[in-house]
Structure of Dolichol phosphate-mannose biosynthesis regulatory protein:
Amino acid sequence: MGTSDKALGGTMLLTAAFVFTYYTAWAILLPFFDSSSAIHGYFPAREWAIRLPLFVLVVGLSGIGFFVGSTIIKEKRKAAQKIRLRSA
């Protein structure tokens, strides 16, 4: 089990490093290259450098909010059921 965890962790680390490098080159370094440069062909339009992370942030925060909300509702239902069982 330890080897597969290390492989998974290494894969995740390499993926994160690649995404960080790609996004940094796209959002920060690309404006310094001439628009006729061939390097612009490797990246989507610059407007997506803002839209994509914003979309991921909104979806992530919505997922966290949904999880917390559903957990609170489940806990309240459990507490209400315990009160009903005590009074019955």
Q: What stands out?
A: The CA atoms of residues 27 and 49 lie 6 Å apart.
